[in-house]
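Form P-L/3: holo structure prediction, ligand INI.
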Amino acid sequence: MTTYNGYPNGTDRRFALVCARFNDLIVTRLEHGARDILVRHGVDDDAIDTVWVPGAWEIPIAAKALAATGKYDAIVALGAVMRGATYHFEIVANHSAAGLARIALDTGVVITNGIITVDTMDQALERAGSKAGNKGIDAGLAALETVDLLHRIKQSST
Ligand code: INI
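OUTPUT (holo model):
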């Protein structure tokens, strides 16, 4: 029996961070968290490209274009969708999550979901570098680990 695990090894790997400008007070912190954790695990800062889109709705289309370039080992999606008075929150949150899942499976490029979905700004701040951690860090780590895992699985078949 073989057990496969991925480890956060960023040497010689390239990443794109796709960030939504909507709620950029939060998303800037998520971007810093993701970039920092990638660099701490050996990714060259020049090998991390940040791409800004208007809102979380636009993250999947940018992620799809980035995946198609073949330049990136993984794409980290970063955004903050905050509940307002209307149903728009659900539409944006569901579209971005479903779109990212589909693009990852269709292209085989690792995409991790660091789009936080919250009711209030306080909850968003908690997840952007205070008491609930930084979801950008979590998404960056998940990307590193999954890239390494896929690499090991591919190597095992050659
Ligand atoms: N975009 C977000 O990233 N977060 C939100 O909370 C949000 N809300 O609540 O409206 C949001 N809307 C904008 C959306 O992502 C698109 O940019 C817009 O609909 C234009 O396509």
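COMMENT: Residues 135-156 form the longest helix (22 residues).
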